[in-house]
């Protein structure tokens, strides 16, 4: 059981900050006027990999080096942000890293993972196929398989929650994107360690809402497909360990459509000139959906990443919504 006490989270944050500075949280006046509340944006898109997962990778690799000193290389499956984070942290720690992605994965994300030091392998046409190949490589080549959710990932990710809550007092509600759950669990862990009463709301795609339905049912429920361009939240089957943690601790879940996410991306650009990827914009989309309920309150949204594909971003900023059919992505 990972220690999520305040001293443990502070130690994890110090480890993260030794490699990268805290990200800012800004109160953008145009965005606040549009949302009708005292709104703060936590800019995880400003991290070195362009997404929040860089934090958890640092603490995870540190744990791996201590718990399994014999490991010389790791392998994982991903569609992008998880892979970039693991590649950066593994390379910095002197470990080899192999990443498996499905055929047709975003060229920009593939290039970024290679640039951070990964050996990239394309296999299959969906995330499940890539994960199966990564598992085979782990077994056949003696590589350590990195899963998308782990307690040490949560410890590192919680550092953005500590930064936000330390900087901004009396937040009524914070909206957090949910893929496999490290962001939601990390935010809850930071809130609880600090003894705050802030409501933490998970946000999913309405087209891939398994985490929301699992939360409401109190048991794992899967989505059959992942028909959303917001690939960072396109997770068909939630992680049981994540559900066990956020289930009794999250306030509620909100589901947003691709059209709402595309509009939130345009709003970010118009009001802050930050470019959010699909998953990075879902929290703002949820707030705008609940605008009347949040009116006048102090609210935060997590802009979890900015690694959008150029073609998708061009279509969105021109007023469109990308139509994507991806299965079981992460």
Question: What's the short story on this structure?
Answer:
This protein is an alpha/beta fold and 330 residues long. The protein has helices at 6-17, 29-35, 53-67, 81-92, 107-115, 127-141, 151-167, 182-194, 210-217, 240-246, 258-272, 278-289, 291-294, 310-317; strands at 25-26, 38-43, 73-77, 96-101, 119-122, 144-145, 173-177, 199-205, 252-256, 298-303. The chain is globular.
Give me the secondary-structure topology:
Layout: H1 6-17, E1 25-26, H2 29-35, E2 38-43, H3 53-67, E3 73-77, H4 81-92, E4 96-101, H5 107-115, E5 119-122, H6 127-141, E6 144-145, H7 151-167, E7 173-177, H8 182-194, E8 199-205, H9 210-217, H10 240-246, E9 252-256, H11 258-272, H12 278-289, H13 291-294, E10 298-303, H14 310-317
The succession of helices and strands, N to C, reads HEHEHEHEHEHEHEHEHHEHHHEH
Q: Give me the Rg, rounded.
A: 18 Å
Number of strands: 10
End-to-end C-alpha gap: 24 Å
List low-confidence stretches.
326-330
What best-fitting shape do the alpha-carbon axes yield? globular
The largest pleated sheet is described as:
6 strands, mixed
Strand content: 5-15%
Indicate the mean pLDDT. 95
Helical content class: 40-55%
Structural class based on helices, strands and sheet pairing:
alpha/beta
Largest sheet, spatial ordering of strands: 1-2-10-7-8-9
Number of helices: 14
What does this structure look like?
The protein has 330 residues and is of the alpha/beta class. The protein has 14 helices and 10 strands. It has helices at residues 6-17, 29-35, 53-67, 81-92, 107-115, 127-141, 151-167, 182-194, 210-217, 240-246, 258-272, 278-289, 291-294, 310-317; strands at residues 25-26, 38-43, 73-77, 96-101, 119-122, 144-145, 173-177, 199-205, 252-256, 298-303. It has a 6-stranded mixed sheet with strand order 1-2-10-7-8-9, sandwiched between helices. A 4-stranded parallel sheet has the order 5-4-3-6, with helices on both faces. Helix 1 packs across helix 3 and helix 1 crosses helix 7 (151-167).
